[in-house]
Amino acid sequence: MGDKADIWQGTLALMVLKTLEAMGPLHGYGIARRIEQTSDNLLSLNYGTLYPALLKLEQEGAVESEWGVSETNRKAKFYKLTRAGRKQLERETRDWEQATAILARFLSPAEEA
Amino acid sequence: MRTLRAFLIRLHGLFRSDTREQELAAELESHLQMHIDDNLRSGMTPEQARRDALLKLGVEQTKQACRERQGLPWIETLWQDLRFGVRMIGKNPGFTSVVVLTLALGIGANTTIFTLMDALYLKPLPLSHPEQLVRIYAKGPSGHYGAGFSYPEFSLLRDHSSSLAALSAETQIAQLHFVTDDNDSEEIRGAFVSANYFTLLGIQPRLGRSFLPEEDAARARDAVAVISDRVWKTHFNSDPAAIGRQIHINGIPIKVIGIAPPGFHGDLTGSPAEIWLPTMMLGAAGFACDDGSYDCALFDAMIGRLVPDQSPARAQAEAGSLMVWSATNWPERPSQRQLVVTPASASAPDVQADSVTQMHLLMSITATLLLIVCANLAGLFLARGVSRRKEIAVRLSIGARRFRIVRQLLTESLLLASLGGALGLAVSIWAKQLLSKFYATDSEGFHHLYDLSFDWRVLVYSVAVALLAGICFGLLPAIRASRQDLIAELKEGVSAEHHTGGWLRHGLVIGQVALSMVLVVFAALLTRSGIAIQQGTNFDPAHMLVLRLRPELTKASPEQVESLVRRVDQRLSSSPGVQSVAFMQGGEGLVWNWQNGREVYVGLPGTSQEALQGRLMVRKQDVNSAFFQTLHIPLLQGRSFSEQDHDGSPRVAIVNQALAARLWSVGSAVGRTVLLNQEPFQVIGVSADTQPPSPIHAPEPHVYLSYWQSNATREGDIRMAIRVAADPALVLPTIRHTIQSIDPNVPIGEEMSMSEQVDLEYMPVLLARTITSYCGLLALCMSAMGLYSMLAFSVRTRTREIGIRMALGALPKDVLGLVVRQGTKLTLAGVLIGIAAALALTRFVASLLFAVKTSDPATYSFVAVLLLLVALAACYLPARRAARVDPMQALRTE
After folding, report:
1. Is residue B596 within 8 Å of B605, Cβ to Cβ?
2. Pick the residue with more confidence: B328 or B651?
3. How far is B806 from B814, CA to CA, in rounded Å?
4. CA triplet B196, B201, B207: central angle to 5 degrees?
């Protein structure tokens, strides 16, 4: 792992949802690569944790899956955001922004004082 | 919502795992391929590309993580455990059937007693909102709840209580003489109730109507009745025209206005009423002082419906304050009486307390049996855990967690417990039939009606008992079996004795023997009491018939009563098959009973008036001259009554031994004078006490007077006891016929053999005897089995040691002694603990013991010897096997 950061608990689902929103339908490997690229390869993503997370999102109805053909002509399972997924993404994004904003205020040097 | 959706999908995922598995494999494979493609494109060699892709994904871990996410792991493991359990159970049918059968007997006994509890106390009455119904009793200064209410008290409470929405007065009469206009007659139990009784309970007649308010407004005016469904079927062939027909109750004509719905038997569990009449008819039917005054306590109890969200306690407080007035309005029965409001499902608290004590005793006895069963099975499972230790060690070493092993073993025992519980339910159906006879009639011959059918309470109870038992006998062995030293275990040749949990298994055997000792001692004491009771104490109930003539119910005059009694006595005495006839003036209690008769004050001549303050009150019986001879009650001194002891001759009395001893501590009682209610009587004889000796009750004093001489005669209510040559049940119809040929209309009740009446009167003793004997017998078998299996196992695990001993010169008889000594030592310890426990606990059965002391040395030694003999028998087989060990073989095997 070294200097790469681990994925924080619970944020993987949010990243997956955001990736699917940005990229449209995508297979698991694509999602993984995209997450790594977006983080400028700063995040160390264990690919093995991605699939259970996808399964969970599918069971909860946030994404749905379909077999298709990849850009490299491989048969692959494509994941797509559902309407419920979009809503979940909006809500979680909002929550996350709020949480980071609060944390930022704590961590920023005390200006008023 | 999301979680629920996921849960349902995962539940579904439990079943389609094959296609899912393939799909997952395909998805991961395509992931790998794409990754390898990328790696190749970035210039890696094919091997490097593949290695890198595999490292980053970790196919198997991902698959496992997805699998766990796909289904519900805990259900899957449960399912695995169950399947494994079923396989283990099926693999060992002998073991399984022993365990299931043992459990079935233990659980069945408990379920049976609970079924009785349920029928007696827990099942709600089939009335609308039974939880709102309360019963109101008047508790007298002597502590019993039958002091009763007068009409003014009832109307005061009915009109002024704010916590009661409605109130109805009620008097149950155990014996009403019921005659249809076709002269079809029966003695039935009925109730006199207020007009609102049926509406208050929420009962709609199936035909006709219930009472109108004005039908319970004027004394003796409205002769109307509602009859039960059974009476309608039996006496009117379910004819709807029964409405409006005339019947006679105790000789007065009454019109039938309604038929109660099937299954309605009044508001008291167990004592079914068959006919209901307005309270205003009580006087006309011949009961008590129906004058409407405060003195006349007409009603046994009142039944009320609480205003919603009122409690019985509130109602009691309010009723209590309303009743304070009675101290001023009613100086004769001042505030010593206390109002008690109870939920309507309960009988009077004093009656209830007695039967609850009885039930607690029975429940403790069956619970003890179940405890023995659990100890027994725990021993078996400990032994089995040891013999399965290799299997468990292998599973632990390939990574099973201890918790998982415990859970799996526990699943197995719970599975067995459930099987045992199911079979136990079947056992209790059978046992219930056996016990229902104890609750069918009371000693006066009136039918009881308890609903002994299973309901959800019984099912829940038996499931709970089964699970509890499963955990009881399964948990400890499971934990022990999973606690292993793996390295030592997997190595060959480690002695099993290290792992047998020796002290635990010994403790279980000692415990079983000790508990069995207690049960068997109780069973033996109760059996001896039962024998004493059924043989009769100083009277002989065999070949006796009892019945009760009630000519007064049909308004017979004293002359008619006298002529009836004389003619019945003469005709019966000269009937073939009848040896002699005893009869007596009715009274409460039973024919032979010291509790029978009316109370009189007893004094001696010359006692001052003050001394009479603490005067002796005893019951007297007016009996005919053949009474003592017929019942075979010995006269210890003097003579019996004769035909000469009639009106006008010197007044004579016979006292029982207890009274004689009380009045005259020295010298003979015969010839002395005794004052009964201040009138002098000459004692002509002393009879033996007929009360069975009890560890807590001293014999009660009792006095007999001559029927034809006593002033209480000619009232009717004649109890007869007839000694016959043949089986009483066969003679009964002839006797009944003979009486009816003298007077076809005389009500005859309580007809049964005296043995039957004795059994019914001592029902609690005999019921406890039956249950304790069954449990004691089973307990004995269980402890023998427990000891046997413990020793057999110990011999098996010590084969090597025994082999060495024999190789070093021990003879077979030394080895035999070794095993027998081990068994006897444990049994002896159990017996000693059991004796101490039994001595400490007998006070709980003391009230049921007769003619035997709670610490009777003969019984205790008999049971101790019995247990030791049974233990020796249980030792024999394992000991013989030990003695036959071939040293060479033994040393080679382990």
Report:
1. no
2. B651
3. 9
4. 80
Q: How would residue B149 be classed by pLDDT, with cut points 50, 70 and 90?
A: confident
Distance (Å, rounded) from C-alpha B60 to C-alpha B773?
Answer: 63
Find the angle CA(B779)-CA(B785)-CA(B790) to the nearest 5 degrees: 125
> Are B34 and A48 inside 8 Å of each other by CB?
no
| CB contact residues (below 8 A), chain A span 2-21, against chain B | none
Task: Let me know if B94 is exposed, middle or buried by CB neighbors in 10 A (0-12, 13-18, 19+).
Answer: exposed
ipTM, interface predicted TM-score of the complex: 0.86
Residue B829, token pair as written in the block: 């310890």
Structure tokens at A72: 């490299």
| Residue A97 at interface with chain B, using a CB cutoff of 8 Å | no
CA B841 to chain centre: 19
Measured between CA atoms, the residue of chain A closest to residue B38 is: A72
Residue for token pair 């009380």: B662
pLDDT band at B491 (very low <50, low <70, confident <90, very high): low
CB contact under 8 A, B31 and A27: yes
Report yes or no: B838 and B846 within 8 Å, Cβ to Cβ.
no
Range list of H helices, B546-656: 558-573, 627-631
Which tokens is B532 given?
Answer: 């004493």
Angle at B55 between CA B54 and CA B59, to 5 degrees: 50
- Gyration radius from chain A CA atoms: 16
Among B residues 18-77, those touching chain A with beta carbons less than 8 Å apart: 23-24, 26-28, 30-31, 33-35, 37-38, 56-58, 61-62, 65-66, 68-70
Is residue B656 within 8 A of residue B688, CB to CB? The reply is yes
Distance from the Cα of residue B305 to its chain's centroid:
30
Q: What is the distance between the alpha carbons of residues B792 and B806, in angstroms, rounded to a whole number?
A: 18
How many whole angstroms separate alpha carbon B329 and alpha carbon B150? 12
Q: Does B437 touch chain A (CB under 8 A)?
A: no
Tell me the C-alpha distance between B767 and B852, whole Å.
Answer: 18
Among the listed residues B428, B443, B353, the one whose alpha carbon sits nearest the alpha carbon of residue B771: B428
Phi-psi region of B702 (alpha: psi -120 to 50; beta: other; left: phi over 0): beta
Whether this model's pTM surpasses 0.80: no
